[in-house]
Write a structure and sequence with these properties.
By secondary structure, the chain is an alpha/beta fold. The chain has seven helices and 17 strands. Helix 3 links the parallel strand 9 and strand 10.
Length: about 280
């Protein structure tokens, strides 16, 4: 079970070292295979993120990286874990397809007994954001809306469908993150007009991010109560979070951003761990 100490809740995260990280194909507008990638630098940025989580009191488990799967570092896409149940991922692209079974295998070996091989395309926590009483899920670029219903039935938690419209923000976790008190931070222009009305109705106290905040993947953040772990470049968002009483911990993820991922993409939350 998650433990609370002061304003902090201990979380358990799954991460995958970027041992085989590369940009060899382009499945989102951030990826340009002609741009050089410095793998050592990616590993350094990733290690600092992992060490920061541990320094903040969280648990981090690691899945072994697989050669030939350069995007496997983005563990958020490996599944969705709620109340110890694991809804597996089914990737939209052929390049990432083998990651789905690889992550499910890790969960089974780690002792999770309720696992589901999905029928519908979904890229795990990349397109699902879990709040206290419901989950938000995106469609538009990767995850199919039918997967939202599949997840809702399997996890027993209501899922609200949102439509993403800007290809730079192709996963929900690039455009929105959860804040305490059942609210969120998001970039309005990433969503369709209808979805924006849903967000406005559900979250009157939401924090709205600027284009710069979003374009530096500032919304690809992890909030664990008071603490927020986020991209160093998203200064406006950081300032507004501080004014709301948050402690902001900045990380540099620009090497991994060449593949379109930031801090949250590298992080899959295990809610909670099996005993
Ligand atoms: N290159 C990866 C892809 O396009 C990046 C995934 C980022 N992950 C995330 N949760 N947003 O699939």
């Amino acid at each position: 079970m998650a433990r609370t100490s002061g304003a902090r809740t201990q979380r358990h995260f799954l991460m995958c070292p970027p041992t085989h990280f590369a940009v060899e194909y382009a499945i989102n507008p951030w990826m340009d295979p002609s741009v050089a990638v410095d793998r050592d630098r990616a590993l350094d940025q990733w290690s600092r993120l992992r060490d920061l989580y541990r320094a903040l009191g969280h648990r981090v488990s690691e899945i072994a990286p697989i050669e030939g799967l350069p995007d496997m570092v983005f563990a958020a896409n490996g599944g969705l874990v709620v109340d110890g149940r694991v809804y597996g991922a089914r990737f939209a692209s052929a390049e990432r397809t083998p990651e789905g079974p690889a992550y499910l295998d890790w969960f089974r070996k780690a002792g999770y007994t309720e696992t589901r091989e999905p029928k519908h395309v979904n890229e795990g926590e990349g397109d699902f954001v879990v709040l206290d009483t419901l989950a938000l899920a995106a469609t538009g670029f990767r995850t199919e809306a039918a997967a939202h219903q599949e997840a809702e039935r399997f996890l027993g938690r209501p899922v609200v469908t949102l439509q993403l419209v800007d290809p730079r923000f192709y996963h929900l976790d690039t455009a929105l993150f959860a804040l305490p008190g059942n609210t969120v931070a998001y970039y309005p222009q990433a969503f369709s007009a209808g979805s924006l009305r849903v967000l406005e109705a559900l979250f009157p106290d939401a924090l709205l991010a600027t284009e710069h905040d979003a374009a530096t993947l500032g919304l690809n953040s992890v909030c664990t109560g008071t603490d927020v772990v986020m991209a160093a470049e998203a200064a406006d968002l950081a300032e507004r979070l501080r004014r709301r009483g948050h402690t902001v911990h900045t990380v540099h993820m620009d090497e991994l951003r060449k593949a379109g991922g930031g801090a949250k993409c590298c992080t899959l939350e295990l809610r909670p761990t099996p005993d």
